Amino acid sequence: MSIEISGLDFRNYLHALYQNRSRQARFQGRTPEDFTAWEPEARARLLDLLGTAHLEISPLDVRTLGEEDRGSYLFRKIAYRTLPGLYVPAYLLLPKNASRPMPAVLCPHGHGWGKDHVMLEEECYHRYPHYLAEAGFCALVPDHISFGERANPDEGYRGCSFEHEALSLLGSSVIGYRMWDIQRALDVLESLPEVDKSRIGCAGLSLGGEMTLYLSACDTRVKAACIAGFLTSFKGTFLKEPHCTCGYIHGMARDFEHADIASLIAPRPLLIQSGSLDPSFLESDARKAYAEILSLYRLLGKEERVCLDIFEGGHEFHVSTALAWFQKWLS
Ligand SMILES: [Zn+2]
């Protein structure tokens, strides 16, 4: 026989901790001037949390590894250097008949099997880089650390956790390193004579949406963004149930919620996609985040530049509205 005691569920404490200690660096101003003053400080804080300040840019080295004619576009396999001795493999889709210089969209993938996964029609990405290329956008689809050709083949190293834990131990984050890599992907796009560097966007689903969020917040070279199946809140996702370890960046939710990070994209065009049947990144949380972001865009007088696309679907990319969004803002 024993007496029951309450207070054993640590999740209750975590909930209270979130209520009391989260979002300490969020925008709390009331005027556009307040936002202008907050923005550089918040961006510097975000970069500090991502842990890539010690990295130095290597001279860009882009190599072509192969090319196929896919009808309306060239499908090129490339690799580019991001750090000394490190190269990232990627697919580059170059429309053949688009007027040049053309707009471009960077397409970071989510969890799964890397850049090949994104190119499959029946998968959650629905092959969106292909449709972007058919619509006249150059598309670049790189492999992240831990995926595709960069996945560690050894059994004990599969997934993100080894790279995440190792980089955490060294004071950084695998998300930060992935962002560094896709910043170099922007360098690649800017280096292409076919691409108009003033019209580069970014679009991704899930981890790809997360990377689009961080990249667009940190790097203003992204002129329009589409975040699918991610932008909700840490409270409603990573702090509510276990997700992949790579998204747990030391101190991030203490300083910023999803909506706070997205605030750093303002006033650049931002499309948020949420499938009404997505079981993890809920429509209700996407609506709450959108309401906060919309109030900032309104404050800046750019309400038309942010849009929430709720569609009937699961954890997947909604190709048609993303295409329309980039055609509106980058064409
Ligand atoms: Zn992960």
Polypeptide structure, described:
By secondary structure, the protein is an alpha/beta fold. The chain has a single domain (about 30-330), classed as Alpha/Beta hydrolase fold, catalytic domain (Rossmann fold). It is about 35% helix and about 20% strand. The protein is built from eleven helices and nine strands. It has a nine-stranded mixed beta sheet with strand order 1-2-3-5-4-6-7-8-9, with helices on both faces. It is globular and about 75 Å long. The model has no long low-confidence stretch (mean pLDDT about 95). It binds zinc ion. Zinc ion (ZN) binds next to loops. Zinc ion binds next to loops.
Distance between the termini: 73 Å
Number-wise, the strands total 9
Count the helices. How many?
Answer: 11
Helix/strand-derived class? alpha/beta
**CATH topology-level name:** Rossmann fold
What is the mean predicted local confidence, pLDDT? 97
Helix content: 25-40%
The helix/strand order is: HHEEEEHHEHHEHEHHEHEH
Total domains, how many?
1
Describe the strand arrangement of the main beta sheet, using strand numbers: 1-2-3-5-4-6-7-8-9
How would a crystallographer describe the biggest sheet?
9 strands, mixed
Bound molecules: zinc ion
Per the principal axes of the C-alpha atoms, what is the gross shape? globular
Going by CATH, the architecture would be: 3-Layer(aba) Sandwich
CATH superfamily: Alpha/Beta hydrolase fold, catalytic domain
Binned strand content: 15-25%
